[in-house]
Amino acid sequence: MPTKFIQNMNKTEAGFHLLVILSLADGSLQKAESTIILEFLDEHFREPIEIIKEQAFLKACPNDDMLNHFTETAERFYAISSPEERNELIEFAMKVVMADKKMDKQENSYINALFDSWGLD
Description:
Layout: H1 4-7, H2 11-24, H3 31-44, H4 51-60, H5 63-80, H6 83-97, H7 105-117
Helix pairs in contact: 2-3, 2-5, 2-6, 5-7
């Protein structure tokens, strides 16, 4: 069951969590990646986001809980978004993952979790 924190997320916050976790899956998040993620979210969703709060939450989230958090956040995003918004996010997520021209095991695990939670093939 999602936490109250996740249940209260708007699309921008949920998208931020999903995209940042995907970016972190290969070991690190570069400032340029974070900037591109925020630009994408601002362009597509335009809902308020407290970046410092969201970053602090992700930093404090134990690695063992990250996949569960990712899946619950994906379900939240699904519940509050349109099919077009989900398509835009998944397309951008794939660009984030494939930016280095390869998908490592951890990135694949998260992408599979996203596809599974959204019922995609």
